Amino acid sequence: MEIEASIAELQATLRKHREKLATEEAAKTTLVLPFLRALGYNIFDPDEVVPEFTCDVGTKKGEKVDYGICVGGEIKILVECKPANGDLSIKHASQLYRYFAATDARLALLTNGVVYRFFTDAEKTNMMDDRPFFTFDLDNYKASDLRTLATFQRADFDLARIVSHAGALKLQSEVLAELRKEFGEPSDDLVKIIAGRLHDGIITKGVRDRFRSAITQAYGSLIRDGVHQRLEKAISGGSDEPDHQMAEVDQGAVETTDVEIEGFNIIRAICAEKVDPSRVVMRDAKSYCAILLDDNNRRTIARMHFNSPTSRYLGLFSGKDEAREGVMGPVDIFKHKRAILKRVAELEEE
């Protein structure tokens, strides 16, 4: 997807200039406007992206939101910006609340350029929810986040579909957050339930402590097993369920897969021991996915040959020579950490 490259480039910009984004204007110019452009909106067309959008009814005199996003000649998304290090607490978005109620917009975006929080009125019509139904973190996002983000693109914008899915997505996000909290720091109630099912005898403090530790460790193991299974499905060409949000892709075009994105993030994390991770860039091609230093095709760190449904290879370089190592999936890249770091050091010495 084109959006993947645009967002990756924006992430690199953030990591390079983070210290210079202390003001709201800096965050808007450097991050927010490019983010809107990545979604396909013409930021130079005031009929599409309205700066300092004002509404004369139901709001305070002179009050405005930073941007109004138009689709089909109507305001669809209200955008309120804060500095890159600013608090995104909902209590600091009172004008966004008022504008949401005073306009026909069904979507609101509260952002500091790094974190993007999307709101709708899933709980009460025409009243903006207190909690976002989707949060996109430019510092830390997954392939599934990009797929959700793609539904906000201008070319495929379907307000009814977004709003209909918002309630379910919001509830799912809240449940996931509670589960992570519960299994990360198991409550007495959860420990009591699990221990009651598995332990014969009196549940003493020692028993509770032992089960609390076991629950946390088991949760970590469960997550690792789930990741491994998903990677195996991706490698074999299968998936857990069809993704109806993604547009159909021409089979002859270059398509960056979830497996390649996972591999890129692993290689970038490894390289971070030697260089600024923003210098590590992914450039996909039909036959392989290259990982480059400084986005220079003469400075190839590695190549992922992950397109075959039956075999996967990681291309490792020494000078101009490429050696292909068989891998089952992205997690196996960690086995070649030493070779990757050696290659980065070699490129830095050139």
From TrEMBL:
It comes from the Bacteria. GO terms for biological process: DNA restriction-modification system. Residues 44-123 form the Type I restriction enzyme R protein N-terminal domain. Coiled coil: none annotated. This is Type I restriction enzyme R protein N-terminal domain-containing protein. It holds the Pfam family HSDR_N_2. One of its GO terms (molecular function) is ATP binding.
